[in-house]
């Protein structure tokens, strides 16, 4: 504002002089008689006419200039004063310009009132000085106006710059609007997040309550499971006691009757004469009696056979028709030093706790994460368990197949987790399939003494990229299709079915089929199975005495490794996709069985279509989930264990495939 006040400071001396003239005019007398005086007075009034007013617009302070740049230099106003005369009548000296600041003030001599001439001359001099000052002020005002105009011109900016500034202002306004909108959206989002956080807190509290309820339920279920196991052991003990009592009672009665008859016959033989013909007749009669007694004993045994089978099936139902075993693969000596092992613990025979050996840290909170996870199965086999101990649990399932049930045993897990070793074993340590073959023929031999005749057939196939191959005819060009036949179940067209007469014959066929199986190297296993191998052993038993016929089967399945496509090389990517597709279909079937859906999607994959008779309804299923012990496989191991945990919860009811011989003839 300094620039705006500067012109007013220059007008102050002019205003002061005008006021001085006005005061002096009051002292001039009016003499009408003297014309000269009047004329001089009129001339004086003309001369004393005030200067025209100069309108100075206030200067606006430009934003781009500082106040120091606009400061104007003011000139010091000059003052006029008269030099007092020493004597009356002496001429007055001319007016002198005296600088107020340099010379001392001289007292002013008062002109007498009657000396009009002197007064007039003085006024003329003052008038002349005033005109000069007025002229000087006009010059200064014009200079100021020019400076003001130049400042106004300087204030006007370049149009391009103005346009640029306007655009910048508009952009800033738009940015401000965007930021305002973002601010409003962030405020709303914060409110939503706060609300969601509250909901999550409530959900967490609810989950905590449910978790406590589940813990209590788990505790109760464990107690019930313990009671069921006790009941199972009690039933087993009762079954063995009943069988032993039955055999003892039957044997005792038989021996007692035979003893009585023998004693009676001995007493009779002592009374009759010793004639050869008569002795032969008596011996023939005794033989017939013994045959009748034996037949009666067999019939009694057959009557007890159904309760025995029913009790055995009850035991299987208590333990579950779909059972899940977990086996941890032992690391090879060379791998222990090269690969990091997971931390595993086994609280009991049915539980497994697994976590990473290295501690994990949460990126956000920086706190340690407890990655320990606990799983419960029907049986857990630590790494030091032998093949024989694993197979002990399968003896009852083989007997169930001979009793007319469908049985399925399959191994599931990622590549390199020990599936093929569990199913096939090695030359020095046989796996599940060779031991199952031996047990089947051992039981058939025992049952043959009770008039049971069994016929055994076997087939070997693999499912590679959703295509079926006969492992006994690897170069065959036949088209293999899966069909469902009423009364015969699932069949495969053109598949070779071989009659088996001995365990050795079946083992040789199994070894040949294993050689023809598709294998390849993967990131996890150098000799990984890239196909699903299915060995089917069909059993038909016929009792000549009771005319009862049983039809059962055992499916021994070695599944291909479940592996993530991200960890698979490009060459095996297509194989991995097909393997994962079929395993996903298997998981969907198991999930549908778990949820008790009315429709089970067996036909979504050839694998589930082939195993339809073994997965639900009339079947008893045992699943081995094989787990790799290495930390690099931790994620895949957890996925396999979670999948197996869901399968463990599935409940099905199996029915026996029992017919009578006379029904087959009609």
UniProtKB/TrEMBL annotation:
InterPro entries: Kinesin-like_fam, Kinesin_motor_CS, Kinesin_motor_dom, Kinesin_motor_dom_sf, P-loop_NTPase. ATP binds at residues 413-420. PROSITE patterns: KINESIN_MOTOR_1 (PS00411), KINESIN_MOTOR_2 (PS50067). The keyword Ubl conjugation does not apply. Transmembrane segments: none annotated. Residues 321-650 form the Kinesin motor domain. It is found in: Cytoplasm, Cytoskeleton. One of its GO terms (cellular component) is microtubule. GO terms for molecular function: ATP binding; microtubule binding; microtubule motor activity. Pfam families: Kinesin. GO terms for biological process: microtubule-based movement. Residues 22-54 are annotated as: Disordered. Residues 38-48 have a biased composition (Polar residues). Belongs to the TRAFAC class myosin-kinesin ATPase superfamily. Kinesin family. KIN-14 subfamily. This is Kinesin-like protein.
């Amino acid at each position: 504002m300094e620039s705006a006040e500067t012109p007013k400071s220059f007008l102050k001396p002019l205003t002061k002089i005008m006021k001085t003239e006005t005061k002096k005019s009051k002292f001039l007398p009016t003499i009408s008689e003297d014309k000269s005086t009047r004329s001089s007075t009129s001339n004086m009034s003309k001369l004393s006419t005030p200067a025209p007013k100069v309108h100075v617009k206030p200067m606006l302070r430009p934003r781009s200039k500082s106040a120091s740049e606009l400061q104007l230099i003011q000139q010091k106003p000059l003052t006029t004063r008269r030099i007092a005369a020493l004597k009356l009548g002496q001429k007055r000296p001319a007016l002198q310009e005296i600088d107020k600041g340099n010379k001392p003030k001289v007292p002013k001599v008062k002109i007498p009132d009657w000396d009009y001439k002197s007064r007039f001359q003085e006024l003329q001099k003052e008038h002349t000085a005033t005109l000069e000052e007025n002229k000087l002020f006009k010059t200064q005002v014009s200079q100021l106006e020019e400076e003001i105009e130049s400042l106004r011109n300087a204030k006007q900016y370049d149009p391009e710059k103005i346009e640029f500034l306007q655009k910048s202002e508009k952009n800033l306004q738009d940015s401000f609007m965007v930021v305002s909108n973002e601010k409003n959206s962030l405020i709303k989002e914060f409110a939503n997040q706060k609300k969601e956080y509250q909901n999550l807190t409530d959900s967490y509290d609810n989950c905590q309550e449910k978790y406590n309820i589940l813990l209590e339920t788990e505790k109760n279920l464990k107690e019930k499971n313990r009671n069921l196991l006790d009941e199972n052991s009690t039933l087993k003990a009762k079954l063995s006691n009943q069988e032993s009592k039955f055999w003892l009672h039957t044997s005792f009665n038989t021996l007692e009757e035979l003893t009585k008859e023998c004693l009676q016959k001995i007493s009779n033989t002592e009374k009759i004469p010793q004639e050869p013909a008569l002795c032969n007749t008596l011996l023939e009669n005794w033989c017939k009696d013994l045959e009748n007694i034996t037949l009666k004993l067999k019939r009694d045994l057959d009557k007890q056979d159904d309760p025995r089978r029913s009790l055995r099936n009850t035991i299987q139902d208590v333990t579950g028709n779909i059972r899940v075993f977990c086996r941890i693969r032992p690391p090879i000596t060379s791998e222990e030093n090269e690969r990091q092992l997971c931390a595993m613990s086994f609280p009991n025979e049915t539980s497994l706790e697994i976590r990473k050996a290295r501690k994990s840290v949460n990126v956000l909170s920086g706190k340690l994460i407890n990655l320990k996870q606990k799983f419960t199965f029907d049986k857990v086999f630590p790494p030091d368990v032998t093949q024989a101990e694993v197979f002990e649990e399968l003896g009852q399932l083989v007997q169930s197949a001979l009793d007319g049930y469908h049985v399925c045993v399959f191994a599931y897990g990622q590549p390199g987790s020990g599936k093929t070793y569990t199913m096939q074993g090695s030359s020095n340590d046989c796996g599940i399939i060779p031991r199952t073959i031996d047990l089947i023929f051992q039981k058939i031999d025992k049952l043959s003494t009770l008039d049971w005749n069994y016929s055994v057939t076997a087939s070997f196939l693999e499912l590679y990229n959703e295509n079926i191959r006969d492992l006994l005819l690897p170069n065959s060009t036949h088209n293999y299709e899966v069909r469902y036949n009423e009364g015969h179940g699932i069949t495969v067209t053109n598949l070779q079915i071989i009659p088996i007469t001995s365990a050795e014959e079946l083992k040789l066929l199994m070894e040949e089929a294993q050689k023809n199986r598709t294998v390849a190297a993967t990131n996890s296993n150098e000799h990984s199975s890239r196909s699903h191998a299915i060995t089917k052993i069909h059993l038909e038993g016929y009792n000549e005495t009771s005319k009862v016929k049983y039809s059962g089967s055992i499916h021994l399945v070695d599944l291909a490794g479940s592996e993530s496509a991200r960890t698979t090389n490009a060459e095996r990517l297509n194989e991995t996709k097909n393997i994962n597709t079929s395993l996903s279909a298997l998981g969907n079937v198991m999930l549908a069985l778990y949820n008790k859906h009315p429709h089970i999607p067996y036909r979504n994959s050839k694998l589930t279509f082939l195993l339809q008779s073994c997965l639900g309804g009339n079947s008893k299923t045992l699943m081995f989930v094989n787990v790799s012990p290495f930390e690099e496989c931790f994620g895949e191991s957890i996925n396999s264990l979670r999948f197996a945990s869901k399968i463990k919860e599935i409940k099905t009811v199996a029915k026996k495939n029992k017919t009578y011989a006379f029904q087959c003839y009609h």
